[in-house]
Amino acid sequence: MASFPITLTRHIIEKQAAHPAATGEFSALMVQIGLVGKMIAQDLRRAGLINILGGTGKTNVHGEAVKKLDEIANETFLKVFHYSGLVCALASEEMEKPVHLPENCPHGKYMLLFDPLDGSSNTDVNMPLGTVFSVLRYEGKAGLPSEAELIRRGTEQVAAGYLMYGSSTMLVFTAGRGVHGFTLDPGVGEYLLSHEHIRIPAKGKVYAVNEGNYHKWPAGTRQYVDYLKVSDKATGRPYSTRYSGCLVADVHRMLLGGGIYLYPGETDKPEGKLRLLYEVNPLAMVVEQAGGRASTGTMRVLELEPKGLHQRVPLLIGSPEDVSQAEAFIQGKR
Does the domain made of 8-195 have the CATH classification 1.10.10.10? Predict the structure, then answer.
């Protein structure tokens, strides 16, 4: 008889059993994140039929046009975690300030930061989309956490991961002891373990970058991308380019197949585009736990001391050898 597939719930409970002091809150938190993914995936499947494509006419804190699905995904997180008893504060790329949940305090042990719908420019054309999340522990015994308590280095994350919405819906996460991927079986409504102990190859043959920005990049970045295109069998070049417009989808490709994703700083915008707390830190934790690297070009992402809730940083992420090589070009060592 074939073995029964491992569900997300069973996987979490089994891991929890290895920690006698565990009280079950983290397990419940991950199940709730899985629920958010199911609800967003359902909306995405029906988006073209129930008039939730297109924009809202609003702009977010970053000055970007808000899509209807951005707003729906953000509201889904808020609805699921209200009265959950798990999370005492939520911070989102779509919200200027954190949302505090006094009904979950003081027993709520966690704070959750998230990008509710990554790649939302893809919503109207049925391309891949994602959700990114970062989990922090809240140690406060009295009162609600301040905004400053959410602004922490990536090394302080207790868990991180992403949901990817494509031909299937996947939940990939780490709690600091390896990376596991679960695929949603829509027939039974359960996430099933499909990718256990993911390990990223040391080197890849694929790169992902928005080359429309080529002439905005510093010389070292341009030289690195040019280098990847030169044919040289000894070094496995040329690399193929794969860029979807969805950070989650592109990083997922690198995680499974190797290679490098870049969203570098620009000459006039050295801070880059991606948000450190909502996108970069959680993906960096996942990739590092799988044996990869994540860098700003000059330092390890997870060691960067954040200055603000919506801080932006450049990002090189993927196979360790590829990231190290990109750093050498950007730092003028090649």
Answer: no
- What's the confidence (pLDDT) of residue 13? 84
Determine if the pTM surpasses 0.90. yes
The 3-state secondary structure of the chain reads CCCCCCEHHHHHHHHHHCCCCCCCHHHHHHHHHHHHHHHHHHHHHHCCCCCCCCEEEEECCCCCEEEHHHHHHHHHHHHHHCCCCCEEEEEECCCCCCEECHHHCCCCCEEEEEEEEECHHHHHHCCCEEEEEEEEECCCCCCCCCHHHHCCCHHHCCEEEEEEECCCEEEEEECCCCEEEEEEECCCCEEEEEECCCCCCCCCCEEECCHHHHHHCCHHHHHHHHHHHCCEHHHCECCEECCCCCHHHHHHHHHHHCCEEEECCCCCCCCCCEEHHHHHHHHHHHHHHCCCEEECCCCEHHHCCCCCCCCEECEEEECHHHHHHHHHHHCCCC
CATH number of 206-330: 3.40.190.80
Q: Where do the domains of the chain lie?
A: 8-195, 206-330
- Mean pLDDT over residues 251-273, rounded? 97
The model's pLDDT over 228-242, given as tens digits with 9 standing for 90+, comes to 999 999 999 999 999
